[in-house]
Amino acid sequence: MKDVLQKIKAEAIEALSSRDADLEAIRIKYLGKKGELTGVLRGMGQLSPEERPKIGQLANEVRSEIEELLRKKKEEYELRAFGISPDFDYTLPGDEVPSGGLHPITQMCYDLNDAFRSMGFEIFGGPEITSEYYAFDNLNFPPNHPARESMDTYWLEGHDSGSASDKLCLRPHLTGDSVRYMATHKPPYRFVYPGHVYRNETTDARHERAFFQYEALIVDKDFTFTAGKVMIKSILSKVFGRDVPVRMRAGFFPFVEPGFEIDMGCLVCGGKGCSVCKHVGWIEIMPGGTPHPNVLRAAGLDPDEYTGFYVNIGLDRLVMMRYGVDDVRLFHGTDLKFLKQFH
Ligand SMILES: [Zn+2]
Questions:
Q1: Distance in Å, CA 321 to ligand 1 centroid
Q2: How far is the CA of 257 from the centre of ligand 1 (A)?
Q3: pLDDT tens, position by position, 167-189
Q4: How far is the CA of 100 from the centre of ligand 1 (A)?
């Protein structure tokens, strides 16, 4: 009987060594209810009491060997179905799947959105291709203002029919979007409108041809500069997670009257002076002012009734401040080694 068991084992090994062995047929042939091994176990009653435990043990060993071979063969078939060699060592560490993250400028934009939203502002977005009307005419730019010239603005060829609303360009600033918003909403307003703007400028450490802008506008019957300054200081402190020094000084822009400039203490050098802050310890981060009466009129509002507070936040500069990086071009490049350190 021992020989019979050895023969069964040898036959089963032989059958399973074939590349395309039929596993179910082999299982039935040897281990099934009417299988050969089962037959041996059934005949054990005829054995002497001394032989019985030995043969029983051997029969169990043969059974587990065949079961183990069947299991391995099944695994081999599964791996083969995925084109993996049976010799493949899947206990080895695999290739690391790179994880994505937000670009530092996008992150800054989201953080500002959160800060403004917490103060009751709405987030609004306009189109990147706009017209001369929305880019200049309704913002109080005189017809001969140098910013209208092609040296500053990217005009789209073949879209100049002579009328300002048809002459298309890449938006050189976001202010036109505020007019779009006001034309379709009822005052009072509190909204921000972030997005890309395009200028035909020479790039240097602080200027880029395409960059992100972030504007905020409040239009109400009564809103003071002091309230605006406190609001900006609290937004910046929220975004930077600490108290940020802020100063306000007079400035001039065509679409505000009066205008101001808000500076923040340079966080790159801590106010001591560096190339980013032109060695003065402060960096210009947002021009702003009260919307010019002509801008309010363009939006269909009466400037005698309404006033407001407008700021244009230099998102790139805030990102430079957040990470202490002194060249804005690094954030617009595609060097992942540089960008990954901010995840
Ligand atoms: Zn500095």
A1: 9
A2: 30
A3: 888 988 887 888 889 888 998 99
A4: 31
Residue 162: the pLDDT is: 63
pTM of the entire structure? 0.65
Q: Phi and psi (nearest 5°) for 83?
A: 75, 20
Handedness of CA 296, 300, 306, 311 (dihedral sign): negative
Distance (angstroms) between ligand 1 centre and the Cα of 322 equals: 12
Q: Which helix (H) or strand (E) holds 286?
A: strand 282-291
Q: What is the pLDDT of residue 330?
A: 85
CA of 229 from ligand 1 middle (Å) equals 22
Domains in the chain, ordered, with CATH? Answer: 2-81 (no CATH), 104-340 (3.30.930.10)
In whole angstroms, give the CA distance from residue 189 to residue 192. 10
Average pLDDT, the chain: 85
CB distance 57 to 64 below 8 Å:
no
- What would the two tokens of residue 34 be? 């009417």
* Interval between CA 267 and ligand 1 midpoint (Å): 6
More confident residue, 142 or 248: 248
Tell me the CA distances in angstroms from 132 to 128, 139, 172, 199, 256, one per residue in order.
13, 10, 10, 14, 19
User: In angstroms, what is the span from residue 208 Cα to ligand 1's centroid?
Assistant: 19
State in Å: Cα 30 to ligand 1 middle.
83
The residue written with tokens 């679409």 in the block is 255
pLDDT more than 70, % of the chain: 91
Cβ(204)–Cβ(332) under 8 Å?
no
| Cα-to-centroid distance, 248 and ligand 1 (Å) | 18
